[in-house]
């Protein structure tokens, strides 16, 4: 049996979406072949809590927690928020907020906290991990990022104890999309590039969750040839099997002209994911009597809400805020249509896979994102448009799409975990 140390900042009861991949991959690894040891943060104060996820943790797992120097606590104080007041991801990197305190805090985050604002965890995490490694014969180290500072923990331990390291890059590192319109100094960029390169050079294998990101990194670093792998983000099939069928009628029994169609977007949506012409098209449809409402499950950037209000959709908006995972699944099952917004050509939104599994039609927006387009078309699940398009064709024909559930089930994390197991077996 192999013992594997998993380094993941996000862990239940955090409700952060980033924890679903490591949590489901670990719990689906065969118990007679892999013994996981999880290193995580003692308390994560940024995101909402989802206590229901605690039920996924096996009682015999060894879980080591260490304190983190959490800069977001200082950020709250600096910008005038209360200590326990929740932050929204989009507001911490907003370029619209011109307040001096926010701009100073943003500059500090981008240029002094390298590679990211969670790097303060590394000091206690490395110390805790060294104790684990002295007491256990560890066969491999897996680090999950973001935060990509977790990979630096894996790198340090790998070199110190001569243990193979597998970094999992859920998002790109130095050129992640939200850096695009933000100011980072040349020195900060240079240091970050050096850190990324050192982690990847040392790695035994590297995992990406999209093919396009893998291709991008292979073009960037020649030395990655023959040691990259794609394990898609996927979804948890058990979450769907444990829920009753959708209570909303999809066909028959309801007169079409009386039925209000609901479009649901689940997860965070940022200002750079704003399909403005789509909102205008929905307003036109409503003016014609085709009642459509938009329901956001999760956080929505203030700029998007303001734009939707400006085009006359204020009365068509429904905001649920954060919901526990199973409640989110219920929401997307009950939708008539699902909205998915990619941030860039390398981004395959995690919620796309849950959306596919619902069997509900999907409208996606993203510029030059062939990977998302291919996944949707292969499952006959819907259509994808550029951000400057209106999506009118989809709204007129959405009920003609009959998504292939068996195609969706290819992305069940139980299957993905099997692929990850084969990768762990390569590590000696």
Compute the separation of the termini in Å: 12 Å
The first-level CATH class of the largest domain is given as Alpha Beta
Which structural class should the secondary elements be placed in? alpha/beta
Rg, alpha carbons: 22 Å
CATH architect. name of the largest domain: 3-Layer(aba) Sandwich
By DSSP (H or I, 4+ residues per run), the number of helices equals 17
The CATH topology annotation of the largest domain reads as: Rossmann fold
Number of strands: 13
- Portion of residues in beta strands equals 15-25%
Describe the protein in words:
- With 428 residues, this protein is α/β, with parallel strands linked by helices.
- The chain has two domains: 202 residues, Glycogen Phosphorylase B (Rossmann fold), CATH 3.40.50.2000; 167 residues, Glycogen Phosphorylase B (Rossmann fold, 3-Layer(aba) Sandwich), CATH 3.40.50.
- It has 17 helices and 13 strands.
- The strands form two sheets. It has a seven-stranded parallel β-sheet with strand order 3-2-1-4-5-6-7.
- Helix 14 links the parallel strand 12 and strand 13.
């Amino acid at each position: 049996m192999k013992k594997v140390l998993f380094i993941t900042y996000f862990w239940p009861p955090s409700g952060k979406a980033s924890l679903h991949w490591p949590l489901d991959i670990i719990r689906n690894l065969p118990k007679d072949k892999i013994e996981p040891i999880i290193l995580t943060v003692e308390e994560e104060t940024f995101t909402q809590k989802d206590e229901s996820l605690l039920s996924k943790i096996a009682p015999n797992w060894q879980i080591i927690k260490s304190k983190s120097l959490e800069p977001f606590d200082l950020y709250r104080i600096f910008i005038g928020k209360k200590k326990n007041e929740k932050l929204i991801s989009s507001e911490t990197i907003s370029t619209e907020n011109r307040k001096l305190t926010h701009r100073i805090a943003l500059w500090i985050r981008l240029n002094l906290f390298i590679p990211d604002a969670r790097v303060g965890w590394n000091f206690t995490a490395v110390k805790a991990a060294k104790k684990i490694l002295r007491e256990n014969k560890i066969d491999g180290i897996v680090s999950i990022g973001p935060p990509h500072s977790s990979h630096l923990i894996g790198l340090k331990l790998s070199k110190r104890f001569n243990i193979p390291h597998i970094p999992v890059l859920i998002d790109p590192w130095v050129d992640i999309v939200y850096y695009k319109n933000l100011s980072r100094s040349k020195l900060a960029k240079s240091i970050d590039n050096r850190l990324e390169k050192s982690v990847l050079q040392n790695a035994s294998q590297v995992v990406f969750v999209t093919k396009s990101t893998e291709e991008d990194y292979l073009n960037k670093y020649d030395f990655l040839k023959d040691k990259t792998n794609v394990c898609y983000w996927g979804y948890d099939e058990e979450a769907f099997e444990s829920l009753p069928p959708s209570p909303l009628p999809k066909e028959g029994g309801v007169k079409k002209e009386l039925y209000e169609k609901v479009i649901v977007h689940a997860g965070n949506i940022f200002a750079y994911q704003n399909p403005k012409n789509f909102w205008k098209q929905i307003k036109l449809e409503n003016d014609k009597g085709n009642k459509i409402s938009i329901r956001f499950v999760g956080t929505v950037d203030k700029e998007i809400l303001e734009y939707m209000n400006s085009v006359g959709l204020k009365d068509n908006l429904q905001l649920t805020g954060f919901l526990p995972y199973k409640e989110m699944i219920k929401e997307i099952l009950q939708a008539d249509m699902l909205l998915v917004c990619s941030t860039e050509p390398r981004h395959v939104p995690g919620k796309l896979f849950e959306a596919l599994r619902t069997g509900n039609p999907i409208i996606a927006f993203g510029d030059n994102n062939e990977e998302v387009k291919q996944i949707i078309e292969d499952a006959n699940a819907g259509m994808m448009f550029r951000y400057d398009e209106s999506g009118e064709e989809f709204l007129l024909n959405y009920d003609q799409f009959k998504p292939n559930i068996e195609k969706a089930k290819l992305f069940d994390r139980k299957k993905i975990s099997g692929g990850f197991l084969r990768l762990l077996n390569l590590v000696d």
